[in-house]
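Supplementary Note 3. Input sequence used for the single-chain structure prediction.
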Amino acid sequence: MGLDITVLIADSSWLEEAPPRERLPRLRDAWYADETGLWDVGPEAARAVEGGWEWPRGTGGPRFGIYEFRGTLGSFKAHFWAGERWEAVREHADPVLRSEVDALLLGLVWNGRDGEAEHTDPEFFADPGRPRDDPAVLPGVLLARSPDSVRRLAATWERARPLLGGLRETFDTLSTKPHGGGWVRAFDEFAVLLEDWGRVLAEADRRGWCVVGLSE
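The predicted structure, written as discrete structure tokens, is reproduced below.
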């Protein structure tokens, strides 16, 4: 079936009421709670449309929200292939744009040219000093960015956004070489995915919240 991803933004002050190692379970427990209405299967259940937010119901008010990316069906494959396509075209991009998109994707979903990029701020969910490669630290977490990281990434996107169109011709010419298959094969698909990440970052930054990507 492949790797899935659910991207959430969450109230950091609420999570920080718990010790670091208890914050991820707290978020998961809130997400799976019946009162949120997120797991209803009846016709009355409100479901987010692509490119939109889904907010939990309940008396406590929204402490997190889920963003539905356009054209991904909840799969991580689109995000992975966006990184692959970027790696294929980045050397042909304007240097300023290259620097900004590098920073954006390295902070979110791209492993980078050396395959060692980190997409998490482990100290936000785990006790300081725990090894970063300990699978018990962040089980199922593909992305975990603190409000400070979110702020920097949101600013990066705002700088990249007006320059992105200059990549269209190069992207559509080179992005499928040498990778002929996979997702995100056209510039518009790439741009839409980045725009959706921009929406996530902007909303989280506006609220002072964190961003988390979970694979369940």
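Residues 49 and 112 are 31 Å apart (CA to CA). The longest helix spans residues 187-207.
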